[in-house]
Amino acid sequence: xxxxxxxxxxxxxxxxxxxxxxxxxxxxxxxxxxxxxxxxxxxxxxxxxxxxxxxxxxxxxxxxxxxxxxxxxxxxxxxxxxxxxxxxxxxxxxxxxxxxxxxxxxxxxxxxxxxxxxxxxxxxxxxxxxxxxxxxxxxxxxxxxxxxxxxxxxxxxxxxxx
Length: 162
Prior knowledge:
Blueprint: E1 4-9, H1 14-30, E2 40-43, E3 47-52, H2 55-71, E4 79-81, E5 85-86, E6 92-98, H3 104-117, E7 121-126, E8 129-134, H4 137-149, E9 157-159
Antiparallel strand pairs: 1-8, 1-9, 2-3, 3-6, 4-6, 5-6, 7-8
Helix pairs in contact: 1-2
């Protein structure tokens, strides 16, 4: 019987993230409480920059952005917020970076969860992902359910299921 396998990855859908930023820009342009303020959101290649008049406006912008991300299916665990810092014109700026790939310490925790489950599967780290193989597809499904229930600090997706 052939071995079945799947990959555990942690990545973000860039197109959905772009859509969330665009929707946030549209909403802050039309909201009454943002009229006449210096509130903006900018997207670079590897980060998003939130700009607001003060920490209160920055918090409101963050809430709008997070709600758009949730609607687009982006896990909030994939976003890492930096410290708010002063910017030109008396505004506040906050950088948002994305979690991409499974770090070795998270991979180690995933391996331990799989090993402790007692399922007849093997897991191995490959680059920034974890591959799980086993003879029974039911065991692989059980691993996915186990990892979904575990409260890991990163979002997980499962692909290459064969």
